[in-house]
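job 3f2a | input accepted
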Amino acid sequence: MSKIYEAVTINTGGREGKIYSKEKDFLYNVTSPGSGVADTTNPEELFAAAYSACFNGALELVISRKKLDNTTSVRATVALMNHGDADFSIEVLLEVFIEGMSREEAVRLVGEADQVCPYSKALRGNTKVIIEVVNEDF
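job 3f2a | predicted structure (138 res):
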């Protein structure tokens, strides 16, 4: 195994602070979901962005290895769940669109992408993830 890439970010202030890279070329103000504070993000939104990009990258790899060139889109919805006193988790819905492909083939390729995607591997067995193939792009 060889390391391909390593990312480092720093958070100060938890959910009411900042998240940034060492060089500060990646810098976001963070706040709790639903706070209504302008120009901020939250951990769930960042996770949704990262997972959708990672899964779509895995899907594009699977598709390209089959010598196909269908356009794809992935929408990730990440829900923050409260199970009681300081007992939180997330649940994920990935909606996947593959242009010009039968539903059966799309489901098969999405299943292969789920086996390739590092985020899917990390979450498997730990987090509820639902993956749906949809018929229309977003």
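job 3f2a | The longest strand covers residues 72-82.
job 3f2a | closed
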